[in-house]
Amino acid sequence: VQLQASGGGWVQAGGSLRLSCAASLRTFSSYVMGWFRQAPGKEREFVAHIGVSGRTYYADSVKGRFTISRDNVKNTAYLQMNSLKPEDTAVYYCAATITTTWTHWGQGTLVTVSS
Question: Which one-letter DSSP state was computed for residue 88?
Fold first, then answer.
């Protein structure tokens, strides 16, 4: 397994969770790391990504509430999620790439936000 996502769970609206993505990729620091999510009955959507330089990009729906980060020593990417809303309920996937398309995917971790 090259990407292992964890940290999902149940939380009330307004709460926080931190997701982790442990990578067993060679030269982890060379990969762009991303988070996606898929809600029930919906297509998978982009959430955030972090480049090799640390530059970040967010979907409008999570901007200001979620923070993506990476630790190149621990070979792990994180997604800190604050002010969670019921519409954030989804399976969250981490992904990695060194090209222009996402080539590595984790298995997903479920986040449930209750109102």
Answer: G
Backbone phi and psi for residue 72, each to the nearest 5 degrees, phi listed first: -75, -10
Give the separation between CA 103 and CA 30, rounded to whole angstroms. Answer: 13
Residue 82 neighbours by CB under 8 Å, 6+ apart: 16, 65, 66, 67
For the record, the structure tokens of 37 come out as 């999510």
> Which amino acid, 66?
F
Task: Please give the structure tokens belonging to residue 32.
Answer: 């762009």
Sequence letter at residue 25: L
Over its length of 115 residues, how does the chain's per-residue pLDDT go in tens digits? Answer: 699 999 999 999 999 999 999 999 889 999 999 999 999 999 999 999 999 999 999 999 999 999 999 999 999 999 999 999 999 999 999 999 999 899 999 999 999 999 9
CA atoms of 28 and 37, how far apart (whole Å): 22
